[in-house]
Amino acid sequence: MTVEEILKYCLENLEGTVLVESWGEKGIFYNPDHVLKRGVYILTVKEKDGDNDKGSDLDRENVYRVNLGIRKESFAKLFGEVPKRPSAGGVVDMNYDFTTLNKILPHPVYAWMAWVCVLNPSEQTFEGLKPYIQEAYEYAKEKFKKRRK
Q1: Is 140 helix (H, G, I), strand (E, B) or coil?
Q2: Which structural domain, as residue segments, surrounds residue 84?
Q3: 78-82 contacts at long range (C-beta below 8 A, 24 or more positions apart)
Q4: Domains contained in the chain, number
Q5: Element (H, E) at 107
Q6: SS3 for 100?
Q7: CATH code, 108
Q8: What is the pTM of this model?
Q9: Which of 45, 91, 99, 140 is least enclosed by beta carbons within 10 angstroms?
């Protein structure tokens, strides 16, 4: 899968979404009619390390990471528990190799917020990620409604 294919899938299948590029990331936000300044995060694609996010070693050639926030219950079913927030620049205290390609993993920094990630997903792994993308989408719609009030 390419970054473009992943973003295209989201924009074509998740109604009311927009693509926002900032902070060296490409993000899919729920923001129907551009009501909010940015919208609510659904999914991001990060292609390089940041000052406080180096856990996946994204500075390797042709490596990118797909990130999305799911419900804490779903996260706990996948990984056993939601970890504590790491210190600035650190990674969560979980026994995972966050540099592993093509596997659904806890996000190395934002797992404490129930974010998951995949580095360079294959088509098959992306198929397995789709239910979580749908969950992230539905969750973003709920958050959007709360922000609109």
Answers
A1: helix
A2: 3-148
A3: 78/104, 78/106, 78/116, 79/106, 79/111, 82/111, 82/112, 82/114
A4: 1
A5: none
A6: coil
A7: 3.90.1150
A8: 0.95
A9: 99
